Amino acid sequence: MTKNFWLPPDKIVNGLAPNYACYASDRIMVEGAPVGYMYRDGEGWNFLAGDEDQDYVDDPANLGLYSLNTLANYDRAIIDYLDAPPGAAFIRSGDGFVEDPEGAPTDPDADTSAYLNPNFPTRSGYQQITRNWALTLPEPMNQRIEDGSLVFWRPGLTAWLSAWGDETYTTAAERRAEFRTKISPLAYDHAEWASGTSLCLSYRLAEDHDDARLPALYGSAVTDASHLLLALYVDSGDDLASAYSLLRSVTPI
User: Fold this and answer.
1) CB neighbours (10 Å) of residue 12?
2) Is residue 2 part of a domain?
3) How far is Cα 150 from Cα 142, in angstroms, rounded to an integer?
């Protein structure tokens, strides 16, 4: 079925947002409704008017695959939120959006605990990993120590963590600035934020592998006293959302 889009092609302006793929409802693209709800899962961004019922969303005929730049032309209010990591969700509020504390939708029936390795300890929820750092695991995971690193893993997601004391730098800002200089020029999806007294950064990097894993997620969290390095390897988009959740949960103690 041919769709008659709200904006004709000659009204689409280039360069408002990256040309990454996203999904959007016909309520926006055909009927011209503003974006009312937007979320980023492991596969990318999804845009809804916010008044669709579940039957409407479940019908693939009511959704389409577009570029983020096209969506930005339909509703420029989304532009300031497109750098949010997988797992983020936003609800319309006036001319902008407020973050949905529940985050992006997830499968309530998903249960990875049955696939964990019974020969290793199982951890879930809040974890104090050193005397300086804590994090929250998004779902049950196995734990082991390997090559001096703490490893949390489950099928589809493996997180390596290494903690270090202050050896050279006197401030968190200096330490993060040094880490910034060591990031590969091929890295993408850069982000920086603060968590308590720590300064954090993350990026993704595609590396050569013999398997089908997605580009890895790397991160660091630094304080004046110590720093934590993280490398997270994922197999799918849903695993990537969990990886971001784990990384963003890191807090200094």
Assistant:
1) 15
2) no
3) 11
pLDDT tens-place string over residues 39-87: 998 778 999 999 999 999 999 999 999 999 999 999 999 999 998 888 8
Chain segment 92-105, per-residue pLDDT in tens: 999 999 999 888 88
* CATH number of the domain enclosing 196: 3.40.1000.10
**Total-model pTM:** 0.66
Residues 84 and 123 in one domain: no
Domain end: 73, 99, 125, which one?
99
* pLDDT of the residue at 79: 97
With respect to residue 208, please indicate whether it lies within any of the assigned structural domains. Answer: yes
Cα angle 217, 189, 66 (rounded to 5 degrees) comes to 115
Q: Is residue 107 part of a domain?
A: no
- Characterize 178-215 residue by residue with b for buried, 16 or more Cβ atoms within 10 angstroms of its Cβ, and e for exposed: ebeeeeeeeeeeebeeeeeebbbbbbbeeeeeeeebbb
For residue 166, is pLDDT > 80? no
